[in-house]
Structures are given as C-alpha cells and as structure tokens.
C-alpha cells in the first residue's frame, strides 16, 4: 500500500513538473503551434520516466533539452533570371549536441518559419538518438519556394544560403542534409559554395551528396525504405505481412516514391500518391517507374500520370487521398495532413496500420483515435529515421575514405530500423505502455540524450 501511494505521488510530481515546463515553453514561444505540439507529445510520454528517475527533474533536463543551444536566423538575398532581387529568410537550429554534432536536414518551402524549424529540430534530437548513431539534433531551411524556379535561380539561391550557413557548420560541428525542397541538385550547389568558402574539400560537412563526390548509395531511398522496414516489423508482431495489403501513400517525393517501391517489393498493392495539386488513384497499383520519371527527371505534376495510365483517376484535392479505402496508410507528404476526421474515415474504410513517413503528419487527436481503435501506429521519429541513419553512414564512409555497396548499406539500414522498433517496443513495455510505439520511441530516444546531458554537467 505504501509503495502504491509513493508511486502515485511520484507520478503527480512528474506530471506537475511536465505541465510547468510545458507552460513555460508556450509562454516563451507564443504563436508556435507546431513546436508546442511536438513538445506536448514528447513531454507527456516522459511522465513515467521522470516518476521513476527524479534525478532528471533535479537536473532540470526538460528545461534544458527544450531550449535550443543555438538558433541562427539570417537573410538570403538572391537574383532571379530577370535581374530582380529577392530576399528570403534562412534558419538553422542547433538544438542539442549531447551525443554528437548537430545533424538534420534543410527544408526549402514557403511554410518554413521558426516554429516549424524548432519543431523539426526538437523531434530530430530523439530521432537521431534512436538510430544509435553518435549524432545530435538540428534542422534548418528557408521560406524559399523552389517550385517553378530555373536551375540558375536555384543555384544562386543555394549559394547565397550557404554563404551564411557555412559560417556555422562543419564535420565536427553541424552536418546538414536534404529535406523537402532540397535534393541532390541543391545539395550539390551548397557543397560547391562551402568548398569554395573553406578552400578545401570537406566531404563530411554535408550529406546527401552525389555519388561522384562522397555520397552514399541508398541515401535517396533511405527514408522511404526505412519507413517500410519499420512498419514491416510492426506488422510482423501482429502476425501480418505487407503481402496482399492495400496501401495508400501521400506525397510523391523521395520518401513516397521509395516507400511505394519497397512496399510493392514486399507484395503490397499501392493505389495512391499525391502532390500539392491533387492525388492519383490507380486501382491496378501505382507504376512507380512512371512516378520516378515524372517527379525526379521531368519535374512534372502528378496529374500527368494519367496521360500514360488512362485507367487511373486524378482528383484535385490532395487531402482527399485518405478517403481511398486501404489497410495500410503511409502519410509521406507534410505535417498535419491527418486530423480527427481523416483518422475516423481511415478507420471506417478498414485501415489496420499507419506509418508516418513525413514529419508529424498526424495530429495528436488523430493519433489518440488510432490508439483507441487498435490501429497499429508507427510514429515519425522512429519510422522515418532511415534518412538520417544513412546520412550517418555516409559520414562514416567519408571518414574512412571508401564506399559500401548498395546491399551493404541497405542491410545496415534494415538492421537499424529493426533495432529502433525493438528498443521502442521494449521501452514502452518497461514503463507500462506495452504496444504504444509513440511513447516507447519518445522514452527510448530521451534516455540516451538525458543520460549524456547529466554526465556532461550543466552546459
């Protein structure tokens, strides 16, 4: 009886601590909804950990971990093809370096602002920890829209962006990579500018590079493949496989394309993909080679898929992609694309599993609906960690001066994703939330970082 009372008291103390720190975060960072959401989701998961380990409260770990070590904001002037001058805002949040140098992607998209960058950077701390690699959390980008820009305009913007960012990064400091709007073309332009600024070739400064100047095989495929490997493991625990599943995917970038490719390899039928204009439904199964060519080579809209596959249907509302009946849903487009209404629609249509390929594509309310209806849910920080995992493998190859084969990198990726699943599942069970991978991933990622912060003192 005494033990139960003590445990309840510890949980009450932990709850009060979590709520107090969260309120401070909201007051100090007003109007940052995305950042507030990710902090709330992670903090709530940590109550049982803090109740069991009050030393984290005594060391003010939450107050410290939620505050970026550094937030850099800068202007990015550039000249378009007509000679007009434009100015965008650039950002880099160097959030936490307790277990290694900052690591995280760069996003070029009009939606980029301090709240989005901080949400992504905070999430990245725990995602990177989950991979087991020695990398801390960071994120960056600019409110620049690359859509419709010429190669020359993209080059001038990327060079201007790196001219400022380059002063704050390096192989042992901060290693950026790509994200939405930043692919091999943009990475190449930025790496070239950095090389010119530094006067030497530092391959380990940025990842996602081309194979002919220090890149890694599987990097392009990594996030999509990794998401499927994680969901595959999650389904296996329920005695299910991808074979015979009907899969709906949103997006048509790298994550979506290679999630589609790997799901098909495992025997699933993928029936949708989308872009910002609309989505396609192909009852015969998406032809991934067509999508690759349209989006990666010709840079066309997904609507053009129906020109070559006239049996497929195009709909001009991208959010309606989740009205298509499926057993597995893979949101791979952007944040907040699945809300309560969408979650209920998916459940009504028979979904049994959801795997987040994008960052925070599901609202907290929708996640709770999936949990209440016993839908298996793979959270982004675990399921889409494959990209940063292979980025870390690229760093390792750069340091050693040689490249692994496709199969070797893919095998390492699959093993990392398996370990992330196992560690998240084990943490959830240890702290009384068996089967809840959201809580398990948060706890597993947090413990490694928190212990490193305690060991290093108040810095």
TrEMBL record:
GO cellular component: cytosol
Sorted UniProt keywords: NAD, Nucleotide-binding, Oxidoreductase
Pfam families per UniProt: ELFV_dehydrog (PF00208), ELFV_dehydrog_N (PF02812)
GO molecular function: glutamate dehydrogenase (NADP+) activity; nucleotide binding
Quaternary assembly: Homohexamer.
Family membership noted in the UniProt record: Belongs to the Glu/Leu/Phe/Val dehydrogenases family.
Designated name of the protein: Glutamate dehydrogenase
